[in-house]
């Protein structure tokens, strides 16, 4: 029998990912972009819902950096993620601005 809180895990993962998105957006450049892209890439490779949503939250910072290649790569991987909710969240991100 599954743990009683198991059905809450996707909801919690989604809420934590939203909080992470807010934190990254409010950071005003205090996060190292190389670290963000590396962590987003590693999380994207895990293949589970929580890691995928956290990767999406981090990669949203790519708009701040003009969607340069280090940001596009993890986003493209997330758009092919095995979890449909992660793919959907990644597909909702519009890469607008200057592409380098």
Report on this model:
The protein has five helices and no strands. It has 100 residues and is mainly alpha-helical. It has a domain at 33-100. The model has no long low-confidence stretch (mean pLDDT 86).
What's the short story on this structure?
By secondary structure, the protein is mainly alpha-helical. About 60% of the residues lie in helices and about 0% in strands.
Helix share bin: 55-70%
Gap from first CA to last CA: 51 Å
**How big a fraction of the residues is strand?**
under 5%
Name the poorly predicted regions.
none
User: What is the total tally of β strands?
Assistant: 0
How confident overall, as mean pLDDT? 86
Spell out the helices and strands N to C: HHHHH
Number of helices: 5
What Rg is obtained from the alpha carbons, in whole angstroms? 14 Å
The assigned structural class equals mainly alpha
Main sheet specs = none
Shape: globular
């Amino acid at each position: 029998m599954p743990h009683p809180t198991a059905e809450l895990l996707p909801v919690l993962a989604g809420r934590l990912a939203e909080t992470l998105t807010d934190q990254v957006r409010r950071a005003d450049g205090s996060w190292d972009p190389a670290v963000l892209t590396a962590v987003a890439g590693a999380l994207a490779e895990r293949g589970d819902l929580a890691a995928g949503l956290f990767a999406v939250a981090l990669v949203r910072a790519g708009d701040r950096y003009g969607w340069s290649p280090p940001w596009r790569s993890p986003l493209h991987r997330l758009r092919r993620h095995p979890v449909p909710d992660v793919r959907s969240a990644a597909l909702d991100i519009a890469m607008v601005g200057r592409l380098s």
